[in-house]
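Notes from hallway chat w/ T.B., transcribed later so I don't forget. T.B. wanted the structure written out for a chain they're using in a teaching module, and asked if we could keep both sequence and structure tokens in one place. Agreed to drop them here.
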Amino acid sequence: MLRAFVNTQYRKEFDQGITEMAATGKQRKVDPASLAHDVESVECGNDKGESASSIGRVFALLAAIGDSGQIGISELSQRLGMSKTTVHRVVQTLKALGYVTQEVETERYRLTIRLFELGAKALESVDLVREADVEMRRIGAVTREAVHLGAFDEDAIIYIHKIDADYGLRMQSRIGRRNPLHSTAIGKVLLAWMDPADAREVLSHVEFRKSTQKTLSSAEAVLSILPRVREQGYGEDNEEQEEGLQCLAVPVFDRFGRVIAGLSVSFPTMRCGADTKSHYVALLKQSGQAISARLGYREEAAPEHAAVQPG
């Protein structure tokens, strides 16, 4: 859940290997598994029961560095009552993760903008849900069907907000649940507004499980429909995720013109009349545009491929 709210679309360095910034400005790939082990093992050996206290030390160090502006290992050790070995190990891990950098001349450490970026993303997600809620409730009141807001999460989508159907429709969805990209309308929308090369890369990591007989079963099958999804402005799930259930989705843009979420309405096939699809698409597009505008999006200023990079 938390990963979606800090916009998992921004976690490329964790999916492809965390990047350590050297003093020269060059980048070096760091194994994320070994870094995670470092964080967990700081001054607690292999005793996982003490991992909580280790995390506490990490945040204590971050706070101390932030309060000081710039600070050295010895001063950090004295201020926090921790051994220099422990301080050095934690600081080096934070440096590798990109949260701390070391000044070449003074060899003192300071925080990077990474923490600010995380806070900004969390705030952006809170704004997204708040702004979307009004429109989602409006769609729900008109259609009486289930309405979802979903975001990109590695090789899947994750639901970050939901308005339940008045009809008591039972679906495999809840806030915090992940569903496949290739078999959901939201997933197709998020993929369609990516750069095609990025969409292909994302799909290369997807396991194409067939939820129904209509589920697309390969990356090529999904990629072949994305241009049409983008051209028509919405994605469809025609009983591809759950039998007897259809879904329509549109993109939601942020102020930079990036697609940060998909807005959808789900309904049983038996309630799909001749004009249902066109009516729901019109509602979704109107609401998607309204949410995007509240987030600062201006269509005329959006670049051709403005989707957030996956990961």
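Follow-up for T.B.: Strands lie at 18-21, 27-30, 100-102, 109-111, 146-153, 156-163, 178-180, 235-238, 245-253, 259-268. Might be a good example for the class.
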